[in-house]
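job 3f2a | input accepted
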Amino acid sequence: MRFSVKITEYQKNLMLNICDAELLGKIISENELTMKISESYYGNEIIEIDEAKKLLESSNIINMVGKDTISLSLELGIGSENGVKKISGVPFLIVFKM
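job 3f2a | predicted structure (98 res):
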């Protein structure tokens, strides 16, 4: 599994944008919803699963897209299945850790 990431600081919190690497550059849409999985938002740094785990655990705000990314997050106890939404079958989840 490979992931694309972008890490930024937002209001003194670590914000992680992460997606399945193969989704980078794609546009998904369903009805009136459209999501562009852009390099400018989800980054262009490709990482492996061990690094993804560390980043998911250490980030306070996480924007996630993709089956592998969401599965890994839920395995780590980050987020819940109830919060996962889908556009054209592609899952996405936003998590704010308090």
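job 3f2a | The longest helix spans residues 49-58.
job 3f2a | closed
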